[in-house]
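Quick one, probably user error.
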């Protein structure tokens, strides 16, 4: 239940991001970035760093969850091995 709710909230946030960003309507034709007013120019470095940080954090979180699940499986295998040894005696 909570996982589905979290997914729905993230989806709504991402779907509404362009509206929240206050994007201006598209202009007619191509306008070089150097000719845009300073308030409409966006530096690329913060977005690039943010994207890389997000990907790395997502990767670390994914690997951490795999590590935890693998630890649980190993623990269950040890418990089964102990049970098997005790029944074999």
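Nope, works fine. Designed sequence:
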């Amino acid at each position: 239940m909570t996982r589905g709710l979290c997914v729905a909230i993230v989806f709504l946030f991402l779907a509404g991001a362009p509206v929240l960003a206050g994007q201006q309507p598209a202009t007619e034709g191509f306008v070089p970035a150097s000719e845009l007013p300073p308030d409409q120019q966006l530096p690329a470095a913060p977005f690039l760093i943010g994207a890389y940080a997000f990907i790395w954090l997502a990767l670390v979180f994914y690997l951490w969850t795999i590590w935890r699940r693998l630890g649980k499986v190993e623990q269950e295998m040890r418990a089964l091995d102990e049970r098997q040894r005790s029944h074999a005696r």
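The chain has two helices and no strands.
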